[in-house]
Amino acid sequence: MLGARAWLGRVLLLPRAGAGLAASRRGSSSRDKDRSATVSSSVPMPAGGKGSHPSSTPQRVPNRLIHEKSPYLLQHAYNPVDWYPWGQEAFDKARKENKPIFLSVGYSTCHWCHMMEEESFQNEEIGRLLSEDFVSVKVDREERPDVDKVYMTFVQATSSGGGWPMNVWLTPNLQPFVGGTYFPPEDGLTRVGFRTVLLRIREQWKQNKNTLLENSQRVTTALLARSEISVGDRQLPPSAATVNNRCFQQLDEGYDEEYGGFAEAPKFPTPVILSFLFSYWLSHRLTQDGSRAQQMALHTLKMMANGGIRDHVGQGFHRYSTDRQWHVPHFEKMLYDQAQLAVAYSQAFQLSGDEFYSDVAKGILQYVARSLSHRSGGFYSAEDADSPPERGQRPKEGAYYVWTVKEVQQLLPEPVLGATEPLTSGQLLMKHYGLTEAGNISPSQGELQGQNVLTVRYSLELTAARFGLDVEAVRTLLNSGLEKLFQARKHRPKPHLDSKMLAAWNGLMVSGYAVTGAVLGQDRLINYATNGAKFLKRHMFDVASGRLMRTCYTGPGGTVEHSNPPCWGFLEDYAFVVRGLLDLYEASQESAWLEWALRLQDTQDKLFWDSQGGGYFCSEAELGAGLPLRLKDDQDGAEPSANSVSAHNLLRLHGFTGHKDWMDKCVCLLTAFSERMRRVPVALPEMVRALSAQQQTLKQIVICGDRQAKDTKALVQCVHSVYIPNKVLILADGDPSSFLSRQLPFLSTLRRLEDQATAYVCENQACSVPITDPCELRKLLHP
User: Fold this and answer.
1) pLDDT of 247-300, one tens digit each?
2) Cα(550)–Cα(573) distance, rounded to whole angstroms?
3) For the residues of 397-438, what is the DSSP string, one character each?
């Protein structure tokens, strides 16, 4: 696409810049990598990432976004811009008035989105330009991931990066011709300002419109060819062993031996990578590479949990670390991170038996229950990074989460008895968590200078030895100190809460609670998963059409509201909800969730399956009508690709039902992504894991017994205590008319032994001898 880049540079007559803005400070790229994003003419721009805030000016007249439900769109409802939401009204206006469309995409907790709103979209002169010479459209990327993916593909292909806010100029037929990310309002020495960009595009549209249209069509055609993912003439997917090993080697090459993780900075948690490493360990556990994979994953999880990326006061994880040490985070908290990390830490506990990991998992879910949960069972999307240090002040990044030595000393003045030197509770906590008088944040972090982020500097044993104290006494004192900080923090202005609820992320959170509850044997956590699934069925599922809705919103008094017309679900909504329901069935043994998962999978196949090329499109053909591309997501990033998750779901559904169609679809999907997995398997670790599972034998673990009986629960808990990713857990209650008995006739041949709950481990239609002792079952599952 180099030709496109050069052409776009000529269109805008933009200077080729060097340093640009300090892009890497807090950015988030479209693939969740913090890097300098650019306008398509190669002018470096910072990518968005920090949280934004509602900034309404009551004396101004609201624009039409005031009628929207999205928190992000509502943040722009008082801009002096004639904003339109994405829709036919805007497209018709552009065609009728022959104006280019200015498309601006972001999300409500995005810092650079907020910066651009404050600097440019609140500017009266820029507002006039946008309203008079363009049809300006605002999109919440979390509401319309299809729109975001299509135009981000363009921005990435025609520049050196991508991120949010994403700003793209389109023809009235929705074809992109110029794009970029954050623009400062005015020109600098090496950067072009937003006002200048608008004036130059206006001029080019008037003078060279035909050239713009021709080149836009050429770029779109090239993107269409480049983004095609299809079975082609391939019959089968590649060898799992080969792809697996290549993926591991690529991860090993980028691994940070000292601090864990897989990049210098910024560092993202990327649970899909950790999940791959656990699976790789299981299939290579007798080899050096297998041990290495386990060590890489466990060390990364431990360093993250000790670092500042974890909120040691209120629990949960921030979005990413701005440094190699996991020390200073970007403070935004995303629901999808909490969901996936709860599973990762639970799996680490399964593998290691170390309660350090299970404690972290429980802390994550405690945070979600307290701060990201709707009273009816659903889960909110995110908490912002920014908040005012004090009421009435301008929001600052991390203000809610950082501390000074003075604050801690005032909150924790009590003397510690028995220490070998004079010591207060505050001094003990500051020593353990690395707080200093000057602040433990680099001066280059700007507004965080002089502040401290809590990060574990020493083990409990070392801290205890340093002051001659008992380890348990230190643990108690630290926990008590953290609780006092937590209570004090409640009095600070809270970060903005994005109370939008997304089906996809709620599906991930159902998995988070279900898997963790099952592994730890805590019914209370499984109940949260059950309530989440009930919320999805009650508020985000249309019974008449069998379709999921993408979004719902918190209304007055905690009610649940929907947009009108509703925003229908995308592929990721179905894939992640189906995964959540399968996990919930295995945790609760309530077959109604499995039945609903099968129905949703049928609907997903009808709406998104590519019958010619294989795999699933990200959006419905009808919903994406008019968009220049219909894409298949081909990267596992901060969230797994919906195709990767679907591959796992199809394998599990085949195990639960025996329906050959599920397996055929899975093989076809994996074959369609063959080339991507061969070339860059590290881009699709979750799909590589599915490829391995498909080419191995799936275990059907059947427990014959009464769901509520103590002996049944003991066998079920035994299964959950062992890390076995490539399995389905089935409860056979002896009822030949039950849903699972109808799906799998062989279940009727399995009997309880001496009227006790009995387990069978089945592979390739052959079952083990009956087992009634949980210890014997564990030996069989984990030889």
Assistant:
1) 999 999 999 999 999 988 899 999 999 999 999 999 999 999 999 999 999 999
2) 7
3) ETTTT-B-HHHHHHH--PBPTT-SS--BHHHHHHHHHT--TT
